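Support request, please re-run this one:
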Amino acid sequence: FQVLGSSGKLYTCYSSCHFCTCPAFGFTVLQKSESLLCKHILAVYLSQAMGACQELTVSEEQLTNILLADEEDEG
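Re-run finished. Output below.
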């Protein structure tokens, strides 16, 4: 899932493995173990429960660009 953050930045959330690319997830969830999830993963779970997810079909090239953009943001 891609979730638009409050800053206007898109974050990629993997609900199947409970992971988000946002800095808050990395710090609060992974490093500090102070929380179970970030607000972006919560938004995914809530939107799924409410049936409010917008599903888009993307090409392999588009998916590659999404994943590489996340990797570049981290590096």
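The helical segments are 23-31, 39-50, 60-74. The two ends are 21 Å apart (CA to CA).
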